[in-house]
Amino acid sequence: MDPWNYKPAAGLELPPVELARSLQRESGLASDFWHHVCHRLSRVYFRLYHRMHVEGAEHLPKEPPFILIANHSSHLDALALASALPRRLCGRVFPVAAGDVFFETPVTSIASALILNALPMWRKRCGPHALAELRARLIGEPCGFILFPEGTRSRDGQMQAFKAGLGMLIAGTAVPIVPCHLTKTFEAFPPGARLPRPRKIQLKIGPPLHFDAVPNAREGWQQVVSEAEAAVRRLAAEPL
């Protein structure tokens, strides 16, 4: 058994809104309980309302660190991926969400932290320091991330090219990337819709990808992005 390591939670002194927006936010007993409740409710919602079918759950790592990636066309996507995780991991896996959407106001910031367990990525002012902070947390804690490498939701349901940030997070580390593909989330809750529609959602999970031998430099980042995007596109092409 690993020895106990007592230390104050990161951001303990921050006010609630700033804590919700912090990349170093950690869970406590109350938030862990709330995340477990939300995870269970989310599973029930997707099973009953969207009749979600999951294929390839055996490819999910048993413990962090890891990154789940998928195509992105709906606000349902992060919830769908999180609901497929084992309950014991729900407080240790963080969707990386657009700060200018999910953390723009105090209310949405606290809701995103409590319900989604999300961490903010400010797209208009995201620099290497933010990615370096996420990379250090991913490896050092360790934890898991849910990430959409397209950077934003598709407006027509078609998958877009992946951005280099994924490579900057993962190149040269032993952290696996787990490729996933979501079908029908766009039809269930497209951009601009007020409420989700009862469409059947399908989630396909592929074998983990490893990039520990890839250099943490521009050419390595591009290799990570290219291979990860190809893996997600292969899942989309395979019959369910």
Which percent range describes the beta-strand content? Answer: 5-15%
Number of helices: 9
| Span of the ends, CA to CA | 41 Å
Radius of gyration: 17 Å
Poorly predicted runs of 5 or more residues: none
Helix content: 25-40%
The SSE string, one letter per element, is HHEEHEHHEHEHEHEH
Integer average pLDDT: 89
DSSP summary, beta strand count: 7
Side by side, the strands of the main sheet go 1-7-6-2-5-3-4
Global morphology? globular
Largest sheet: 7 strands, mixed
Structural class: alpha/beta
Structural overview:
This protein is α/β, with parallel strands linked by helices and 240 residues long. The protein contains 9 helices and 7 strands. The chain has helices at 16-20, 29-49, 77-83, 99-102, 106-116, 128-140, 165-170, 185-188, 218-237; strands at 53-55, 66-69, 93-98, 119-121, 144-147, 177-183, 202-205. The chain has a 7-stranded mixed β-sheet with strand order 1-7-6-2-5-3-4, sandwiched between helices. The mean pLDDT is 89.
